[in-house]
Amino acid sequence: MGSQIDRSSGDGISPLTAVAQQLHLSPTLQINEASRLRAEKGQSVVRLGFGEATFPIQKDVLAAHREASKATSYLPVAGLMSLRQSIAAFQSHRLGTPVKAEQVVVAPGSKPLLFALFDILEGDVLLPRPSWVSYEPQVLHAGKKLFWVETDPVDRHTITAAALEKTYSQAITDGAHPRIMLINSPSNPTGRVFSEENLEIINTFCTTHNITLISDEIYSDIVFDASLTSAPSPCYGDWFSVGHKIMTGGMSKTYSAGGWRVGFMIVQDTEFGATVQKALLAYASECWSAASTPAQEAATVAFAPTPVMDLYRSQVAKLHKQCAMGLCKGLVDCGLDVAEPQGAFYVYPSFQPYAAQLKALGITTSLQLSHWLISECGVAALPGSAFGEIDDDKQVPGGTFRLRMATSYLYFHDEAERYGTGYDLLATASNKAHPISLPLLDEAIKSLHAAVDRLKAVKV
């Protein structure tokens, strides 16, 4: 025993694989921890860094979870059939095309489904810049090469055919095999929604190059304008049937139930879909087995296309719209560059108008800006670099000083207030005659104004 090498005690040999050595704690969890530590010290903090939906769980959904709390048996790997039927019925209505329960797979969140898809699908990956913080690590974990597709420098979301072809050509030149593309609409971090024209461009590109398109639609029910959608309307059915496409979603955002860990995948009713589903179920059987039984029972109620749940979904969307648009206006009033959000609960401002002042403070990257903002001003936000932005405004205009701000923590101070006043707040959202007061939003805007005032006072 004494002759064995201790590979963790300074001999210079890492016990980790090369891929594992590249992995880091998710930036969203890091900023949440920084916010928590600041609060524990009695210091004020405006929590714009963590995108966790915080509305109270709809009462019927909550009751279903409690009723099933004693159920501890494993469910089928593909998920509870009643839940798969509920998801299929709701998505059939939303997409305008029939979806069968057999096309649905349930998992403990959509994140492991994406991990699994990157593992089992052939080829390297194209990803819009910027994109959610976990996509890039998932791709690297699967041992695949990642190629960024540049988006419009103003809204940081729109994708052109030229940008797609440029990235594809570069991947081929680099000896890669691009066969997968992932999109997210409404977007985290931008809060923007793809137009029908933009989606058709993406669809044509992926079909032409035999690329599997994964659509992460975790925010698909939080769209601010009915004319906007996460896919072409009213011909979504045709769009979904052409080429190779996979859709993912879950309970965490619309239903404020991230900790329950329920996600789903929908495959096409084709040979391709059946092949992917078979491989994914085999993967799941050796990895997560099944999502929580009580959570799946509750999700059956949540995803149902019933008048009660339709009302809840609309209330949530209205409140997210008011809060996100309110924060956007506050940022514009601060003199920042920001594209108006169209869905989800994010805004993506650029502090580029104050680049001279920031550089005078020694701040040259979005990461440094986020550190300054929380340590000096008590405002937590995520740096654009966490979403793939390049900290060089010559390469990506405005990319250096972009921050993602989430509005999801601007409703309640704590859990007691969430359930003490949350249902009344949701009900108020249905009554346009009554203005909705959001004191935490007002405080956030006030803090941002104070931070910008500090920048304006810097001598350049």
Automatic annotation (TrEMBL):
<protein>
    <recommendedName>
        <fullName>Aminotransferase class I/classII large domain-containing protein</fullName>
    </recommendedName>
</protein>
<comment type="similarity">
    <text>Belongs to the class-I pyridoxal-phosphate-dependent aminotransferase family.</text>
</comment>
<dbReference type="InterPro" id="IPR015424">
    <property type="entry name" value="PyrdxlP-dep_Trfase"/>
</dbReference>
<dbReference type="InterPro" id="IPR015421">
    <property type="entry name" value="PyrdxlP-dep_Trfase_major"/>
</dbReference>
<dbReference type="InterPro" id="IPR050596">
    <property type="entry name" value="AspAT/PAT-like"/>
</dbReference>
<keyword id="KW-0808">Transferase</keyword>
<dbReference type="Pfam" id="PF00155">
    <property type="entry name" value="Aminotran_1_2"/>
</dbReference>
<dbReference type="InterPro" id="IPR004838">
    <property type="entry name" value="NHTrfase_class1_PyrdxlP-BS"/>
</dbReference>
<dbReference type="InterPro" id="IPR004839">
    <property type="entry name" value="Aminotransferase_I/II_large"/>
</dbReference>
<keyword id="KW-0032">Aminotransferase</keyword>
<keyword id="KW-0663">Pyridoxal phosphate</keyword>
<dbReference type="InterPro" id="IPR015422">
    <property type="entry name" value="PyrdxlP-dep_Trfase_small"/>
</dbReference>
<feature type="domain" description="Aminotransferase class I/classII large">
    <location>
        <begin position="45"/>
        <end position="406"/>
    </location>
</feature>
